[in-house]
Amino acid sequence: MLKKVFFIFLLFWSNMSECNAQISIGMQLGATDNYLNTSINNLPSTVIKSHLGYKIGIPILYKISSTILIEGCPSLIQKNYSINRTDSLEGIVTQYNNTYTQLGVICHFVYGRQLQVFGGAGYYVAYWLTGTLKGKVPDIFSVSTNGTTQNENFRLASFNEKYSFNPQRDNRFEMGWLATCGLEYHCIDPYTLFLKCSYSQSLTDQQKSYMINQIPQYNQTFSFSVGVLYSLKQKHNEYM
């Protein structure tokens, strides 16, 4: 499946290279908010929280018609989340900061002239590059007992370390679908400013099948970004 997606992108790229007048290329920067969709029924006093990250992308757009275009966007994106303990374990937390390289291919529909709205959907492939773990865990050397209530008290110790990938457990390739919408404004020819909102849903488990009755884990990511496009056209037309 991965080979098919990359083949489609290469075909898309080769078609664009034959018709530079239809291409726009740019840069986008933004923030992500990722949530790990999984079941934690087997983990009492536990909640999963989404966390912010960053996204840097290079959108490349190919105009098919005045209302339809194809976008290919290689990007560097963070998909962060945390696992937090509650109740008597309040304060114990592990935050996962995961950085991916991602390639999305999207079909956009646009409406308008100088100010345009757009929306579209497509697929993406990603590779899990690096990860870090940070948070707070109980310090076992600080445990003390309250003689009156017989409750154990402990201090929390902070940690921050690089994540070590396990080749038997971690699935570093990710595929899924994504949807986008936003606004574009043609300011000074040949430049276009844009504001984009995207949502992506992974269809592949973050883990390999390494045990029986495994609970799958899927990334769900919102991103908000701003950027600029440069049209390679000789003359500025209705869209880039």
Number of domains: 1
Overall 3D form: elongated
Structural class: mainly beta
| Architecture (CATH level 2) name | Beta Barrel
Helical coverage, percent range: under 10%
Residues in β-strands, percent? over 45%
Strand tally is 13
CATH topology label: Porin
SS summary, helix count? 1
CATH class: Mainly Beta
Write a brief caption for the model.
By secondary structure, this protein is mostly beta strands.
Topology:
Layout: H1 2-17, E1 23-37, E2 46-57, E3 60-63, E4 68-78, E5 81-85, E6 93-112, E7 115-138, E8 144-145, E9 152-153, E10 156-162, E11 173-186, E12 191-202, E13 218-231
Antiparallel strand pairs: 1-2, 1-3, 1-13, 2-4, 2-5, 3-4, 4-6, 5-6, 6-7, 7-10, 7-11, 8-9, 11-12, 12-13
